[in-house]
Design goal:
- The protein is mainly alpha-helical and 137 residues long.
- 82% of the residues lie in helices and 0% in strands.
- It contains 4 helices and no strands.
- Helix 3 packs antiparallel against helix 4.
- The two termini are 27 Å apart.
Length: 137
Amino acid sequence: MIALSLALSGGCSSVFGGPYDEANGHVADANEAIEEHNQLFEGARGAYEEAKESVEAGETTSREATAQEVEHMAQAREDMQQARDTLGEAREQLSEVQDLEVAAEVQEYAVLLSEAIDAQLAGEGGEIGFYQLLERD
């Protein structure tokens, strides 16, 4: 999970104004998107875990129960995709910082956070692949 923030709120943004306010806004929006992603993805992981435990415990012996589990997993997959979309929104917000005239450290922070988002998306891609295999089983 990504959980980073930039200390531009308050002090710096009010002193410098202009591009720093804008950078702060982009980073704040990115952090909100990251938080939403984290909540959605954790919820989806929990749903997959419940479905997996139910199958392993033999609770899904009837076709009806199995159909319910498959539906539950499909909803979890949709939630994961929505979560990944919010990370894409966060990355877009951070890319806007690169076009601003702000200190190199602020731009570097935005780049590092964007790279962390890319790594998160790559890791989640593998995790989603695992869940898809679980769903097929």
